[in-house]
Design a protein that fits this description.
Largest sheet: none
Structural class: mainly alpha
Order of helices and strands: HHHHHHHHHHHHHHHH
Distance between the termini: 78 Å
Strand content: under 5%
Amino acid sequence: MSPRVLRFIPGLVRGLLFLVLLYLFLFSIDLLGSSFKMLGKGVAEGLLSATTNPFAGLMIGILTTAIVQSSSLTTSLIVALVSAGGITVHNAVPIVMGANIGTTITCAIVSLGHIRRNDEFERAYAGANVHDMFNVLSVIVLLPLQLATGFLDTAAHYLSAVFYGSQAGGFDSPLKPLIQPLVKLTHGFMIDRAGFSECVTGIISVAISLALVFVALAYIVKLMRRATSSRAEHWIQRVFSANPYFVFAIGLALTAIIQSSSITTSMLVPLVGAGLINLEQAFPVTVGANIGTTVTALLATLAGNQNGLTIAFVHLLFNICGTLVFFVPPFMRRIPIVISRFLAHYFVRHKKLVFVYIITMFFLIPLLGMLITERL
């Protein structure tokens, strides 16, 4: 074998190992989401149809999506409830906004895989939290405007009236045929072979998926550290250093293809943690992913119930408006980035509090807020 070929073997082995670890990482994320859905779908359906108060609706959207680990599932349940007349489009709007916040819990969990290394964890948590901050700030600005004017559901009703009746085929993520069979096999083995109930299967699967996330991340980051001294760093920097709108388009397109903003943004966390890209470079992908996650819902509902299509447009318009406020003006991008860096810097010095923050932000505040607003 020639010396030239031998020089490529280590890089080839690292590349194959990276693909295996990436598959393991994506499998663990999918298993985590599927397991939470197994545990929380019935609870989610009950919660979503439980309120007409807009602030309680916002809290329910956060809590429901944090439970099922998927804004796509939450919005699908909302579409089903609206189509069946269980909830009005107007009342569903705050729940959709809350779902955008709740879905960011996946990134926060992924960032915990870096917690043993201070510098790495600070970068990774900031990379995870910027998604949350963007959505929280968008809700702070747009929810009062929606309550005062109803502009989101009004615009969405208009668009659904224009597009209703258009025919569109369903679109499936190319990752599903690669990952879903193993997820189903894992759950099937526990239920059919081991005889576990769905609840026990869900709990065990969550534990397994969290362990796999941390293991996969640990080795992915090791490989990425090596990449910082290779040509890979040059190419990664070249892509992410491009025009922010080009990077934004990458996030939008990638998420529209794989149908999960959680996967897109979670894949950014180890890149930011390893120092291959900075927060300013990751932010456009996060914003693009927020819009990309709404595309497949639109494709799926164009031939369906008009009310369902209206909710899909509400989701799209909310993310577009948030982008216009906190991404299009360059100086506004600094707000979620600065807040995320501040929180990451604080939590790296008080690591135990990050667990308190995640539980409080995604579960305690929504639960208490829902209970309090329902009694007012």
